[in-house]
Amino acid sequence: MTAEPAFATPASGARPALASVWFLELELTQRCQLRCPSLCYADAGPTKGHGQMTCADWERLLDTAPAAGITTVQLIGGEPTVHPDFSRLAEHALGVGLRVQVYSNLYRVTGPLWELYSHPDVTLATSYYSDVAAEHDRITDRRGSHARTRANILRAIERGIALKVGIVDLGGPGQRADEAREEMIGMGAAHVGAPDRIRAVGRAARTMGVRSNVNELCGQCGDGRAAVSWNGDVRMCVLSRFLPSAGNVRTTRLADIFGSAAWYELLAQVPRRPRPRDGDCKPNTLCKPNQDGGDCKPAETICEGDALVLPRISAREIRPETGGGR
User: Fold this and answer.
1) Of 40, 181, 206, 254, which sits with the fewest C-beta atoms within 10 Å of its C-beta?
2) Residue 128: strand pairing partners
3) Given CA atoms 201, 170, 126, 192 in this order, what sign does their dihedral have?
4) Residue 194's closest CA among 204, 184, 208, 203?
5) Which residues contact 257 (CB under 8 A, 6 or more apart)?
6) Which residues in 301-311 are b (16+ Cβ under 10 Å) and which e?
7) Predicted local confidence at residue 314, as pLDDT
8) Distance of alpha carbon 229 from alpha carbon 224, whole angstroms
9) How many alpha carbons lie under 13 Å from residue 149 in its C-beta half-sphere?
């Protein structure tokens, strides 16, 4: 990386002109089968818990989400599928008219989960680190994780499931992040961004020996998106947990939080990178695809920085009408 990204910082007290929140990341749990000692933003792991949000709390949130402007929720963790109420909550979200993305490590996928992922209003996302099994397993600190994740990526592709694969480059010598991306494209994955750099958030910040700060964010936090943690705290995105919460959904309605002074104070803390308009891709200006994960047309994401996003096009648009491969 040769230069810092250009940011536009809002004037003190100004309210950034951002899109209303429509995409809500729901961090169901801190538990995960993987340990990822050097990069996990959530500090997740096999011994972590599911937080203070009960199933009833999550269902109440889902019931009120459409009235707060939410059209799509992402179920994430940790590993969301290890939450005991994962399937119930996914079905509940679909039942109230929300689209669902599941961000999973794809370490273990059961038959019922494949049926869920095949729903026309469900998309799937995962992370992949290397085309070499030993390197991927070293990054996740779980032997066999590469073989399982890769096999389930291939199965999702064969079933015609809408899938996004995020590649994270830890910045160490020799990681085969670019080769991992080429492998995914060669396997037929339709949505694979350029490798993103590791962000100094959560466990990664401790590993890197630095303090998290707003310059580690992609600059689009809160712009059409927000996150709710396993304890009910509302933030601009899952990576901004080092900033204060704008409120808690266990005590305050989501719509009220989005209209609160605390929410706008958070939005004002993030330096904003303007999004390139169609046709505005100019080398060496805003467009740094090797740095930030693909931020100019025809990039597949609405937020280039962390890969935790829904593809621009919907599941219905990218799944063949015939359902081939399913």
Assistant:
1) 206
2) 167
3) positive
4) 184
5) 234, 246, 247, 249, 263
6) bbbbbbbbbbb
7) 39
8) 17
9) 30
pLDDT at 290 (0 to 100): 37
CA 167 and chain centroid, separation: 12
**Measured between alpha carbons, how far is 121 from 250 in angstroms, rounded to an integer?**
27
Specify the pLDDT at position 274: 61
Residue 308 has pLDDT above 90, yes or no: no
Query: Per residue in 59-112, pLDDT tens?
Result: 999 999 999 999 999 999 899 999 999 999 999 999 999 999 999 999 999 999
What is this structure's pTM? 0.81
The residues near 19 (Cβ < 8 Å, ≥ 6 apart) are 223, 224
Tell me how far CA of residue 85 lies from CA of 24, 53, 57, 247, in angstroms.
18, 11, 12, 24
Whether residue 157 contacts residue 106, with contact meaning beta carbons closer than 8 Å, is answered with: no
